[in-house]
Write a structure and sequence with these properties.
Blueprint (H helix, E strand, L loop, with lengths): L1 H20 L40 H5 L13 E5 L4 E9 L6 E10 L5 E12 L1 H7 L4 E4 L8 E4 L2 E5 L17 E6 L4 E6 L12 H16 L6 E5 L2 E4 L24 H4 L6 E6 L4 E7 L11 H11 L4 E4 L8 E3 L30 E9 L2
Antiparallel strand pairs: 1-2, 2-3, 3-13, 4-16, 5-15, 5-16, 6-7, 6-10, 8-9, 8-10, 11-14, 12-13, 12-14
Length: 376
């Protein structure tokens, strides 16, 4: 009798264990490591840029940004050039002084109406890495922009397949704690739907977790992306700039840090305070996606901090959500179907002036890009 009772207890325990092992997506359990091309060894971006004033300046009060709901805003006025590329895509270019710091800026944006079934947006992944103009040509794209940071620091899924699973707790060989995945850009429904979502409660001003808590912090972010079984394309990035109209990019930086210029250039309080070339993606309340780049590190191309980029997006596009992507020497945009004078290099269909290795016109090879394509 005792043996029979022991047998049934053993069987019950065994069944429970089997059920637990059958869970595909357990909490905080990463998938096997998937190295990206050069993602674990790439060095930090060249710092460049110029300093932003220590004074944080005006921060948008909650009452003001809450009032932005329901407002459709498109760029117009002095400094703006507008081209209709097709019935769903509009190109915008800005050449003038920004209204926040009175600095010369060159900004370029492509707006796609996602409700138009004839066009789609998707992520691309190239191994070995390639430049934006080559990817643009390969996919016969309407528009192409650079996307992710170095693969070892982020989560990448393209076409339903994970390419990098946010493997590193530190950025390259710098020793800087990884801060580059607080939010994600997601594409699904064959490239006709997109959303930007935080992987966690946003910390403002941003503070990187301590070494003791870093593995858990990265593990939770990794699980957030890995456990998403709905979206075909996923790219983690940071900082989130606009969260349901709240301009959270304005407060990412802690302006009480006085010695920020002495920090490693990959530290978030340096990286996002310094004026750099920038790349961002924004989503509007009326279902448009905006790909935007800002030049920097060149004459009459000042560049932007995370705060300035957020303010520019709010003023001229009023998106509901926005996310900062890799910038600096990686920033580049190509667009098909514009006038000759719209290009900095028509042979490559480049509209901006990329500056890899501090050489104007030089593109940096990266493994992820975002493309707008015909769906016909």
């Amino acid at each position: 009798m005792k043996l029979k009772r022991l047998f049934w207890i053993f069987l019950a325990v065994f069944s429970l264990l089997q059920g637990g092992c059958g869970e595909k997506h357990g909490p905080y359990v990463p998938p096997p490591s998937i190295p990206g091309p050069g993602g674990n060894t790439e060095q930090p971006d060249d710092p460049g840029g110029t300093e932003e004033p220590t004074d944080p300046g005006v921060v948008t009060p909650p009452g003001e940004w809450e009032s932005n709901r329901g407002k459709v805003v498109t760029p117009s006025g002095d400094g703006w050039t507008i081209r209709k590329v097709n019935d769903a895509v509009t190109y915008y270019a800005y050449n003038g002084k920004d209204p926040f710091h009175n600095k010369n800026q060159r900004v370029y944006a492509v707006d796609l109406d996602l409700s138009n079934p004839d066009y789609k947006v998707q992520m691309t992944y190239t191994n070995p890495s390639d430049v934006v103009s080559a990817v643009h040509k390969k996919y016969n794209a309407i528009a192409t922009v650079n996307a992710g940071y170095e693969a070892g620091s982020i989560y990448i899924r393209v076409g339903g397949k994970d390419k990098s699973n946010l493997p590193n707790t530190h950025i390259g060989s710098t020793g800087v704690r990884n801060w580059k995945s607080e939010s994600g850009l997601f594409f699904t429904a064959g490239g006709h739907q997109a959303h930007i979502t935080a992987a966690e409660e946003l910390i403002r001003p941003y503070v990187t977790p301590s070494e003791a808590n870093l593995t858990s912090y990265i593990g939770k972010q990794r699980s957030f992306y890995y456990n998403n079984t709905t979206d075909e394309d996923i790219l983690s990035s940071s900082p989130m700039l606009i969260n349901d109209f709240n301009p959270v990019g304005e407060t990412f930086i802690d302006y009480s840090i006085s010695n920020w210029t002495k920090l490693n250039s990959e530290e978030p309080q340096y990286h996002q305070r310094k004026e750099h070339p920038r790349t961002a993606v924004a989503l509007t309340e009326n279902n448009h996606i905006i790909l935007l780049v800002a030049d920097g590190r060149q004459t009459n191309r000042y560049g932007m901090s995370a705060k300035a980029l957020t303010q520019f997006l709010v003023k001229y596009f009023n998106p509901q959500y926005a996310i900062n992507l890799d910038g600096g020497g990686s920033t580049a945009m190509c667009v098909t179907g514009l006038q000759d004078g719209d290009y900095t290099d028509k042979s490559r269909l480049l509209v901006d002036s990329p500056i890899h290795d501090n050489k104007p016109g030089t593109e940096r090879a990266r493994d992820t890009q975002i493309v707008i394509l015909s769906a016909k």
